[in-house]
Write a structure and sequence with these properties.
The chain has 289 residues and is mainly alpha-helical. The chain contains 8 helices and 2 strands, in the order H-H-H-H-H-H-H-H-E-E. Keywords: Repeat, TPR repeat.
């Protein structure tokens, strides 16, 4: 009789994964009308990819060596070793590819630019919170100029233009406010805050037609915005009055111009009368002394 001794068992030991998560949390008692700073609604407007600076480490696991290795294990190990070596060679070949390296470097460069833009925007928001509007304008402009044409920076750029508009509004520079809102809307045509701000400033400047146009655009994006509906109803009579006033002023200027010319011949515009034909709707001019 031949006794068969059992093979020793194989134990796999693993250390629990060590993970560290670091987050950035900020609370502000100020409710500021600037994107990236807590707004009047309490929301934060942050650029994509910068909502959190947290990170997490990869878990580490140790695997114990087998006390006994069979022939089959030797073969498996040899195959696995060959596979790993082949994979390592492939990765080495890819890493040496200049195109791959250029793409990697370009992506890293863009990420650094976005990080710098976001940092400048945050600094601008801090200055805005301290009511240092001129200094905040410079920070927002710096963020915009870092990557003026990069598509992935469009969100931060539109936010910074809108924040610049808010600074100009605080400084009473309404024409500059309109310009910055328009720049933000060129990047993001559905930017509600910029539409609201521009419409508000147009009303202050008595540009009622333009203000109504901005309010109607907001209604297209948000049909349930009853405040915009009320604003349109309130502004439409003012727009009509302004049109009539402008028409009268224009006719008065034309009359003055006509009188200055006709006066040389002893006549005036009052000597000419426009008569409307009821059948055709056309006008005929008759001369009266």
């Amino acid at each position: 009789m031949v006794a068969i001794e059992p093979l020793p068992s194989t134990d796999i030991e693993s250390k629990p994964s060590n993970s560290t998560t670091t987050g950035v949390d900020s609370n502000s008692s100020n409710r500021l009308n600037v994107d990236g700073v807590v707004s009047s609604s309490g929301d934060k407007a942050t650029a994509a990819g910068y909502a959190s600076d947290g990170y997490e480490t990869a878990s580490e696991t140790e695997v114990g060596d087998d006390d006994t290795v069979s022939d089959n294990s030797d073969k498996s190990y040899a195959v696995e070793h060959e596979h790993q070596q082949q994979k390592s060679e492939e990765m080495s070949t890819v890493s040496k590819d200049p195109t791959y390296e250029d793409a990697l470097n370009d992506d890293e460069f863009k990420q650094k630019l976005l990080a710098q833009m976001n940092e400048a925007k945050v600094e601008g928001n801090k200055l805005f919170g301290e009511r240092l509007y001129e200094e905040a304008l410079l920070k927002y402009d710096y963020a915009i100029q870092l990557a003026p044409e990069m598509s992935s920076s469009s969100e931060i750029r539109s936010i910074c233009h809108n924040n610049r508009a808010t600074c100009f509004f605080k400084l009473g520079k309404y024409e500059d406010t309109i310009k910055e809102c328009s720049k933000a809307l060129e990047i993001n045509p559905t930017y509600m805050k910029s539409l609201l701000r521009r419409g508000e400033v147009h009303e202050k400047l008595e540009n009622y037609e333009e203000a109504i146009a901005d309010m109607k655009k907001i209604l297209e994006l948000d049909p349930s915005n009853y405040q915009c509906k009320r604003t349109i109803i309130r502004l439409e009579p003012l727009a009509i009055q302004k049109r009539e006033k402008m028409k009268e002023e224009m006719l008065g200027k034309l009359k003055d111009m006509g009188d200055s010319i006709l006066g040389k011949f002893g006549m005036s515009v009052d000597n000419f009368k426009a008569v409307k034909d009821p059948n055709t709707g056309s006008y005929s001019i008759s001369f009266q002394r």
